[in-house]
């Protein structure tokens, strides 16, 4: 099976401002071509032996698979959570023009 060439990468954070900062930083560094911020979602999870519930903002990044490691490293460093959610999902099909745009916007040499 051929590895995917593109990914969507999701993270969550506890404020719209933080979500915007994470999104903008990834786009400025060309680690993602696009980042979409979703309205608040309610997350329910177990943390340190307690059931927690909190309002969070989801950020969904579109990137090339070749930039994933750097995007994960950026999110891990820029995030203020102890264990940030960073989940990548392969894009198996998409518009050829859109995916070419993702490649162009995440090309490391384009940042020069």
Which structural traits does this protein have?
4 strands
Task: Compute the number of strand runs.
Answer: 4
Strand order of the largest sheet: 2-3-1-4
Principal-axes shape call:
globular
Q: Which runs of at least 5 residues are low in confidence (pLDDT < 50)?
A: none
What does this molecule look like?
- There is one protein chain.
- The chain is an alpha+beta fold.
- It has helices at about 15-30, 70-80, 95-105, and strands at about 5-15, 35-45, 50-65, 85-90.
- It has a 4-stranded antiparallel β-sheet.
Concise overview:
This protein is 31% helix and 38% strand. The chain is an alpha+beta fold and 112 residues long.
Task: Give the topology, please.
Blueprint: E1 6-13, H1 16-28, E2 34-47, E3 50-64, H2 68-78, E4 87-91, H3 96-106
Antiparallel strand pairs: 1-3, 1-4, 2-3
């Amino acid at each position: 099976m051929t590895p995917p060439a593109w990914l969507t990468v999701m993270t969550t954070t506890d404020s719209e401002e933080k979500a915007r900062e994470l999104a903008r930083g990834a786009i400025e560094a060309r680690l993602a071509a696009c980042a979409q911020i979703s309205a608040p979602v309610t997350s329910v999870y177990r943390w340190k032996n307690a059931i927690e519930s909190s309002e969070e903002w989801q950020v969904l990044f579109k990137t090339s698979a070749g930039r994933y490691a750097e995007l994960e490293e950026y999110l891990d460093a820029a995030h203020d959570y102890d264990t940030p959610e960073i989940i990548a999902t392969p894009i198996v099909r998409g518009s050829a023009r859109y995916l070419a745009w993702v490649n162009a916007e995440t090309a490391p040499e384009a940042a020069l």
